[in-house]
């Protein structure tokens, strides 16, 4: 068997920063506010920048890239460059220029009032989480009584339990809780993460694929085991 590298096509879910003007300071301020809500989720995460809605595409990409990296994310590409000069500016900043990204919805991490959050230990979702949707259990555990589709995200500051098939992304310990865990009835995830450490689908051992499992974090690394639900 040859050990030569193989170039393959694949698909991954990225966060996209949608810009509407050239105001880099405003973009960094917005991104910083989002990251502060779930720092472990965004830590070292790749980011795509979308400038399709920017009328004059004179964006200072090097300044924008440096600002994003200061916040702990990794800007990798820009989509929506309509001129050769904007594409060249992207290349000069060390990022790639991509084709149109299509339609994307804003990542919405809802804030609950202190009255509703006080004493709350578990948030329960009784409906399927569909592609493009995101659920965030702030300051508590999350229980999903149904499937999580491809392209969907479930996030919790605590642990996550999914009584259905997990095909999307599950991020537990989003605020850095090392003792968080993920339990799911049928593991087919795009990504699983606990307190900043993550596995993509390709990193999940085949013996656990489509099985009932529990994922936890031990000694700064993820561990997985089969369970009965």
From TrEMBL:
Residues 7-75 form the Septum formation inhibitor MinC N-terminal domain. Keywords: Cell cycle, Cell division, Septation. Coiled coil: none annotated. GO terms for biological process: cell morphogenesis; division septum assembly; regulation of cell division; regulation of cell septum assembly. Pfam families: MinC_C (PF03775), MinC_N (PF05209). It comes from the Bacteria. Residues 124-225 form the Septum formation inhibitor MinC C-terminal domain. The keyword Cell cycle applies. The keyword Protein transport does not apply. Belongs to the MinC family. Interacts with MinD and FtsZ. Cell division inhibitor that blocks the formation of polar Z ring septums. Rapidly oscillates between the poles of the cell to destabilize FtsZ filaments that have formed before they mature into polar Z rings. Prevents FtsZ polymerization. NCBIfam families: minC (TIGR01222). This is Probable septum site-determining protein MinC. It comes from Aliidiomarina minuta.
